[in-house]
Amino acid sequence: MVKKQDENKSMEAPAAPATGNSFHTRANLFDVVTAQLQRGIEAIKLDDDIAAILSQPKNELIIHFPVKLKSGHVRMFKGYRVQHSNTLGPFKGGIRYHQDVYLDECKALASWMTWKCALARLPYGGAKGGVKFNPSEYDAEDLERITRRFTHALGGNIGPEWDIPAPDMGTNSQTMDWMMDTYVNIMSHVDRQAVKRVVTGKSIVCGGSQGREQATGQGVVYCIQEWAHAKRFSLDGATLAVQGYGNVGSNTARILSRLGVTLTTVGDHTGYFKNPEGFNPHKLADHVKKKRGLAGYPGAKAISREEFFASEVDIFVPAALELQIGKDEAKEMTCKVVVEGANGPTDIEGEQALLAKGIDLVPDILANSGGVIVSYYEWLQNKRSESWELEEVQMRLERRMRRSYQAVADRARDLKTDMRTTCYAIALERLRDTYRARGIWP
Ligand code: NAD
């Protein structure tokens, strides 16, 4: 039995409702993951001791660090790193730059990483971190200063066999290059080459892997293909809505367009838009890169957030923030499937409402696992001083994603439950078997 939620929660308040999230006030994200975990625990009747261990992160770090900005002013920043589990391997998880980052969010995201890595059979545990600020208010020079100072402040709390960060919302390969460079420079010079794999999601020239940039979107697409195959649904001619047009959202839409899927509705922090004829996903991505948002894209008709969720599409991919689909949004939705590109985009009531309406849901810890899978390949390549061709990375990713999807689909039939609970069941069984074999010392 998981400890009562209030005992496990931090005293830090959740963030204010996200911009544009007009339907409901955001719940505490750690409550959501705790409720999901509880269902997984019940599905496999997990031992109480192991359930108690896994219901809390191992380590929670909060760092206040000063940064001298290029203006000459010094500003204090608040950074987080939560390490949930390292039972299956080193802690692994992204670094988020966003003004709403808070401790319980990092705790939830860190535990999702544990389940995601266990489900994908990766030799990793789970972690997540972030810095509480709005990166769009800073230019590249200040972002570099913030990133380097945060990495220095993290110091030995990260490491290539201990805790391996990666990009997440508001961060990218450039952020990871700066983190890697800062970290190797605080190591002794003889160790510098060996520790470059302290972060993944680096640019290719800094030791990144081919295919990492698009890996999460590619993984989402493999899940959509598997779902479509099982449902005998033709993707050619299908319509798509995507919330969030950053790394995950834009790559998903671009890859799906090659399969004949049309992006008709899209939204981000600058607004929601529709084009019944279909957006060109490549031109849209170029526009977002230049203008830092969707607003102002030629031919896009602005719609409300409510209209966005009510839009008539076949496939809905949330790829922005967490807790975007509550019961109010679910009530409006008419799609056939929700495939969670983002982490935790659907709350407990939202999921129940979707399933009750017969809308399928492919959960985050399966759907967006492509990113951490290719991060693992990057880490392996760095460790072995290898550099794999794109085809090699794609072939491995595809095999692993399709195998995971099939394992979940088969097990869901046995357990007679939904896909999310099944994902938890599989992940928890793997952790349980390891705990049982190793024992709990002393
Ligand atoms: P990103 O920073 O590249 O893009 C985030 C998108 O969300 C942007 O389009 C932004 O405008 C939008 N957004 C922000 N606030 C919003 C709001 N209030 N309303 C609507 N849209 C808003 O981030 P990303 O890497 O694409 O990550 C998106 C999600 O996917 C996150 O939940 C992240 O944890 C998850 N994820 C990312 C990866 C990865 O490899 N990048 C892997 C797994 C999961």
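^ nicotinamide-adenine-dinucleotide complex. Confidence is low (pLDDT under 50) at residues 1-7, 16-24. The pocket of nicotinamide-adenine-dinucleotide is lined by residues 18-20, 167-170, 216, 243-249, 267-269, 293, 319-321, 341-343, 368, 371 (CB under 6 Å).
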